[in-house]
Known about the structure:
- This is DJ-1/PfpI family protein.
- The protein is an alpha/beta fold.
- The chain has a single domain, classed as 3-Layer(aba) Sandwich (Rossmann fold), CATH 3.40.50.880.
- It is built from eight helices and eleven strands.
- The chain has helices at 14-30, 79-82, 86-98, 109-114, 130-136, 163-176, 178-188, 191-195; strands spanning 2-7, 36-42, 48-49, 55-56, 60-61, 70-73, 101-104, 122-123, 141-142, 148-152, 155-158.
- The strands form three sheets. A seven-stranded mixed β-sheet has the order 5-2-1-6-7-11-10. Strands 3-4 form a two-stranded antiparallel ribbon.
- Helix 1 (14-30) links the parallel strand 1 (2-7) and strand 2.
- Helix 1 (14-30) packs parallel to helix 6.
- The radius of gyration is 15 Å and the shape is globular.
Amino acid sequence: MKRLGIFIFDEVEVLDFAGPFEVFSVGSQLSDYSLLEVFTFGADDSLIRTKNGLQVKPDFGISELLNLDFLVLPGGDGSKKVIQNSDLLFDLELLIQNSRWTMSVCSGSRILAKTGFLEGKPYCTHHEVFESMKEIVPDGIPKPELRFVQSNDKIWTAAGISAGIDLSLYLLEKTFGEELALKTAKYMEYQPYLDSK
């Protein structure tokens, strides 16, 4: 069974992590939980408070994770603090390096930029974040016209908030097949993906 971890932190944008969580956990549910274990993790396992106040308890602290196959990096105002924490960035960089693929949503791209994964690479982010991204990764190639883009062989970046659902369904299809992705989109009644088929 493959393992997918979603990093959460104070001031994370709710749909940035909840959208991918829904896609991948429903995909797991529809395959009788035989393909994928989906969980959240934080800098530690303490309760976090999202943007606009929802409280969420991560399943694990980052120090408890030996490995994972897939990694989701959501955004939100709290990503500014994440990239100022050198110890946390070091741990996240190791997880990114060792993952089969990593995706960011919205300003979660800041984490990929700060750890060097977007240097000279195309990237998407929230439309209000492109300017600040230029300060972090001046040689990155912004793609504001796209919903998501492949930044390198195992890094994907999505535009703002709801774009994480689009990228999650795409990566569910790429990783586990179109049949499961279609079943998941139908269960979620997510018409944009269904209309693209």
